[in-house]
């Protein structure tokens, strides 16, 4: 244990961290599943065109891109929260503010969609990932 007062409350025991790691892994996977479910319902089921224009070229948003982007966002969120937890006692509060700001900026991404319906669906995917990650990663374990 470190003598640093901010780190005094952080457990370094791998056994005590296991439930938190497993829970957070499930949260990250759930965020990805939420985005993928929206993609599947909107694209393949409802037939909404999920095409974005990047650097002048049109690209279809496929299942792989949805899973990769949402997993990357979830793992980055988890890593940044874990880092803050090691540095400060205000980690959850600070991280939640940072996550909200990142969400706002991420919502500019769907503006590159080719149609209004695609823009709405992509924005819903961003919001769904945030709706799972933000409360899911910051929930405190009971006990």
UniProtKB/TrEMBL annotation:
InterPro entries: DUF6069
Domain of life from the UniProt record: Bacteria
One protein family per Pfam: DUF6069
Keyword vocabulary terms for this entry: Membrane, Transmembrane, Transmembrane helix
Bilayer-crossing regions: 25-42, 62-83, 95-114, 120-139
Name the UniProt record assigns to this protein: Uncharacterized protein
């Amino acid at each position: 244990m470190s003598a640093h007062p901010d780190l005094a409350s952080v457990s370094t025991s791998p056994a005590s961290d296991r439930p938190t790691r497993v829970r957070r892994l499930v949260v990250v996977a759930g965020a990805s599943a939420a985005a993928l479910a929206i993609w599947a319902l909107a694209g393949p089921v409802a037939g909404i065109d999920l095409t974005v224009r990047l650097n002048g070229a049109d690209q279809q948003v496929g299942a792989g891109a949805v899973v990769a982007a949402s997993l990357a966002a979830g793992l980055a969120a988890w890593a940044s929260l874990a880092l803050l937890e090691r540095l400060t006692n205000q980690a959850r509060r600070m991280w939640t503010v940072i996550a909200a700001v990142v969400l706002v900026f991420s919502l500019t991404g769907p503006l590159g969609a080719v149609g209004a319906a695609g823009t709405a669906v992509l924005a819903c995917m961003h919001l769904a990932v945030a709706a799972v990650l933000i409360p899911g990663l910051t929930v405190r374990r009971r006990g």
